[in-house]
Design goal:
Elements lengths: L2 H8 L18 H18 L4 H24 L25
């Protein structure tokens, strides 16, 4: 059994926003894709020169990718939206059926 399914079951099928309060939630998908590209290039440039800077850029890539995945998987109206298994297909957040 995966950790994600354990979390869904423990929270009665509710899905909570990853990285709550993170400023990347206010950015568009295109902006997040640019961050992934730009920070990835910066991390590659820092590899072997400055491990702290490389880690910071890798964290930015991971955070942007996490939010993009959340949007594509759990936000109604997104191209990759799939309701959680066993749910009614309604929006999993506290706002009801609105995207």
């Amino acid at each position: 059994m995966s950790r994600a399914s354990d979390i869904l079951r423990a929270n009665e099928g509710r899905v909570y926003k990853p990285l709550p309060g993170h400023p990347y939630h206010n950015k568009s998908d295109d902006q997040l894709r640019y961050i992934i590209k730009d920070a990835g290039e910066a991390a590659d440039a820092m590899q072997g020169h400055n491990p702290q800077a490389e880690g910071k850029y890798r964290d930015q890539v991971n955070d942007a990718a996490t939010i993009l995945h959340y949007r594509s998987r759990f936000i109604m109206g997104s191209p990759g939206y799939r309701p959680p298994k066993g749910s009614s297909g309604r929006y999993p957040g506290p706002r009801g059926n609105r995207p």
